[in-house]
Design goal:
CATH topology of chain A: Rossmann fold
Radius of gyration of chain A: 21 Å
Shape of chain B: globular
Number of helices of chain A: 13
Helix content of chain A: 25-40%
CATH class of the largest domain in chain B: Mainly Alpha
Number of helices of chain B: 13
Number of domains of chain B: 2
Radius of gyration of chain B: 24 Å
Distance between the termini of chain B: 6 Å
Shape of chain A: globular
Low-confidence stretches of chain A: 1-7, 321-332, 351-412
CATH architecture of the largest domain in chain B: Orthogonal Bundle
Number of strands of chain A: 12
Structural class of chain A: alpha/beta
CATH class of chain A: Alpha Beta
Order of helices and strands of chain B: HHHHHHHHHHHHH
Oligomer: heterodimer
Helix content of chain B: over 70%
Order of helices and strands of chain A: EEEHEEHEHHHHHEHEHEEHHHEEH
Number of domains of chain A: 1
Distance between the termini of chain A: 27 Å
Mean pLDDT of chain A: 80
Largest sheet of chain B: none
Strand content of chain A: 15-25%
CATH architecture of chain A: 3-Layer(aba) Sandwich
Low-confidence stretches of chain B: none
């Protein structure tokens, strides 16, 4: 049941394949399983979202993938990039990959730039050392990069110190540093969390623009479901170090199956609810997986938990439903999977109409909700879905299901 | 803009006022302390067999019977006119005496500072990079040992080791740089090493502590995420933001170095300012003691001022721009 005629039935060989990745940090209280058995793949031109609360292990996941886990951390599993396992690579080999292969944008641009070095110099350093440019070429290239990420008057700005720039400008500089060597995969770790709301959109637009322009794979890590709903094709929901639900973004957002995902969505502000209505909250505290016992980690907070949930750990299982594509069953995050014994029923009475959801999730000042009711949770229901090429500055909608999967590779 | 320059002028003005106050206090303190010490300079000058008349004559000549405050006042007035007085012992102007010995002490202090930094910086960086590693723990033990060794013991140890056992380095004496730089340095090695070794442990530990903090910063992680070589990250990205305490300490340790120079110059028989202090104190040569202390206070204040300027160089965020 092909949704899009152009769609290749076989997914492209992934650039980045993470398998059963586990990062255990020794703490005073015990072994913290910060990342616990995370698997996913990411292809060129794909955008994969990672959503979770603070402390769910998103940042440690990104750091472990980059080979930058703290020295005390014990890691297992594998991180295959371009066919090579980075987890057991020699430091020198790993360094070769960082920059032109994998690159990372950090959460807080106020701390991610060296405070005592002019930004131009920081760029020139990377360009000279990692791309072997001579002084002048590196200097020109640095100014070009600053212009590319939207720094006005880049020539003069190159001589600025980070503290002389605004938060948004600093994040643009960090992005320029990250993409300086033309990475094939960009890990964006909460790239907008530390920024003003008005700047967040610009930065996300810039990232989307670069991602499509360069055909990069991008892992977009955020706690903001709205961002993921709008900007990603697939998503993973992380809780206490584990992926509890994953799949094509529209499917997961429209019909969340894991009670945690459902709770997260229910706690997101929506325009179709009366204003000043109290938001739902997830009861209890986020679990901290120190020496975790068997059982679902969300069980203590879960309204659907049964005795079994506290005894056994649920494994990710493919959700049978219209969004599951048979050809994708092998790729873990391509199908909609959920790690839950008692998932939320597929069609809850509270099912959110797509249009309202998208409009609300991405509510920005001045944005009007799109009135057209697009998809029902049936993949085949949208044969004439408009080409979803516009991540950039377009009025926002949840991408049509399934057909969006490979659209990231399209030229803008 | 004028406001920027004005701000700097005000800053410099305030700084000079404060330095003046410090020097006044130091001058008063040293005069007062000398005044309290027992013994009569006249005896030191004339020897034990001096007659009462001779002593009275000397007292009158040197105004030794004037009240303390009056003597302090005339001394300060002299300094204000650039006259630090003359030595009781030799009749030589105090400034001339200091100037004659300054090259020795200056060279020792600079050599020691340079050597201490040249050793402590790489050691501090590497022990921070591999904190709690084997090298770090070994150095922690060794530096504790060095810190708790008094300089004179260190000096004797070095003399025993390098002058007597290994040989090749003179245990005493000094050759001015004018008589050949090689011979000069040759004689300076042991005393400078003594001074330097006392500084290295504190320097390297201070740098290590700050460096460990810096290495946890996001921008270090970011630099690593760009695949920059470890050595470059350590020395180019982390060292400068980690060096504030070390710079402060270096400024302060000018004082430590000078007191160290007293011991070292006596031990190695070097004709420096330290030696001058010792002889003038034992001879109750009051103007020289006062003059040397004042001179050192000036050096100390200058070192502090240089330290403050260095902060601006190290961190653009504390810079005042006369833009």
């Amino acid at each position: 049941m092909s949704v899009d005629a152009r769609r290749d039935p076989r997914p492209p060989a992934p650039l980045l394949a993470v398998d059963a990745l586990t990062t255990i940090l020794p703490t005073r209280g015990g072994a913290l399983h910060a990342v616990d058995g995370v698997s996913f793949t990411l292809g060129a031109g794909e955008v994969l979202g990672v959503v979770g609360e603070s402390g769910s292990g998103k940042t440690m996941l990104a750091r472990t993938v980059m080979g930058l886990a703290p020295p005390a951390a014990r890691t297992s599993g594998s991180v295959r990039f371009a066919g090579r396992n980075l987890l057991d690579a020699r430091p020198r080999d790993l360094r070769e990959v960082l920059g032109p292969g994998l690159a990372m944008v950090f959460q807080d641009p106020a701390t991610a730039l060296n405070p005592v070095t002019r930004i131009g110099r920081q760029l020139v350093e990377s360009l000279r050392l990692r791309r072997g440019l001579d002084r002048r070429a590196a200097r020109d290239q640095a100014v070009g990069l600053l212009a590319r990420v939207g720094i006005p008057d880049p020539e003069r700005r190159a001589a600025s110190y980070p503290h002389e720039l605004s938060g948004g400008m600093r994040q643009r500089v960090s992005i320029a540093l990250a993409v300086a060597c033309g990475p094939r995969v960009l890990l964006a770790d909460e790239p907008t969390t530390a920024l003003d709301v008005t700047v967040q959109r610009q930065i996300l637009d810039l990232l989307a623009d670069l991602q499509r322009g360069e055909g990069m794979g991008m892992l977009l890590i955020t706690h903001d479901l709205a961002v993921v709903a709008e900007r990603t094709e697939r998503l993973m929901v992380m809780y206490a170090g584990q992926i509890v639900e994953s799949g094509p973004t529209p499917a997961v957002v429209r019909a969340p199956r894991h009670p945690y995902t459902a709770a997260l969505l229910a706690s997101t502000p929506r325009l179709d609810r009366p204003i000043h209505a109290r938001l739902d909250t997830v009861p209890g505290q986020p679990a901290i997986p120190v020496d975790p016992a068997a059982g679902c980690r969300f069980a203590p907070r879960c309204p659907r938990a049964q005795p079994r949930c506290r005894r056994e750990s649920p494994r990710p299982t493919t959700v049978t439903g219209p969004i599951t594509l048979a050809s994708d069953a092998a790729a873990p995050t391509r199908a909609h999977t959920v790690a839950c014994f008692h998932p939320t029923p597929p069609a809850t009475p509270d099912a959110i109409p797509t249009a309202t959801l998208t409009a609300t999730l991405t509510a920005t000042p001045g944005a009007t909700p799109i009135a057209t009711p697009t998809a029902t949770p049936t993949a085949a229901g949208t044969p004439g879905a408009p080409d979803p090429g516009g991540l950039h500055g377009q009025p926002v909608r949840v991408p049509p299901p399934a057909g969006r999967l490979d659209a990231g590779g399209d030229a803008p | 803009m004028a406001t920027g320059r004005g701000a700097i002028a005000r800053l410099v003005g305030r700084r000079l006022l404060r330095t003046g106050a410090v020097l006044l206090l130091v001058g008063f303190g040293v005069s007062f302390l000398i005044n309290l010490t027992p013994g009569d300079p006249a005896f030191a000058l004339l020897g034990d067999q001096a007659t009462g008349e001779q002593i009275a004559a000397v007292h009158q000549q040197l105004h030794l019977d004037d009240p303390f405050l009056s003597r302090y006042w005339s001394w300060m007035i002299g300094i204000a006119h650039g006259d630090f007085g003359t030595s009781y012992l030799t009749g030589e102007p105090v400034l001339t005496a200091i100037a004659a010995r300054l090259p020795v002490t200056g060279e020792l202090v600079l050599l020691a500072l340079g050597a201490a930094l040249a050793i402590a910086v790489p050691v501090g960086v590497l022990t921070a990079h591999r904190a709690d590693g084997r090298v770090d723990r070994a150095w922690s033990v060794a530096s504790s040992g060095l810190i708790s060794t008094p300089p004179f013991v260190l000096a004797l140890g070095l003399v025993y080791l390098l002058a007597l056992r290994v040989g090749g380095f003179p245990a005493t004496g000094w050759v001015p740089a004018a008589d050949g730089l090689g011979a000069n340095l040759h004689h300076a090695v042991l005393p400078a090493a003594t001074l330097a070794l006392a500084l290295v442990p504190t320097y390297s530990r201070m740098l290590r502590a700050d460096m460990i903090t810096t290495l946890q910063e996001d921008y270090i992680l970011a630099a690593r995420s760009r695949g920059l070589p470890v050595r470059r990250i350590l020395f180019r990205h982390a060292l400068r933001p980690s060096s504030f305490s070390l710079v402060t300490l270096t400024g302060i340790s000018i004082g430590q170095l000078i007191s160290g120079a007293v011991v070292v110059e006596v031990l190695f028989a070097l004709p420096g300012v330290g030696q001058l202090i010792v002889t003038s104190v034992t001879a109750k040569d009051v103007p020289v003691v006062q003059g040397v202390v004042m001179f050192l206070a000036v050096v100390y204040c200058a070192a502090t001022a240089v330290t403050d300027v260095a902060y601006g160089y190290l961190d653009p965020r504390v810079r005042i721009r006369p833009a």
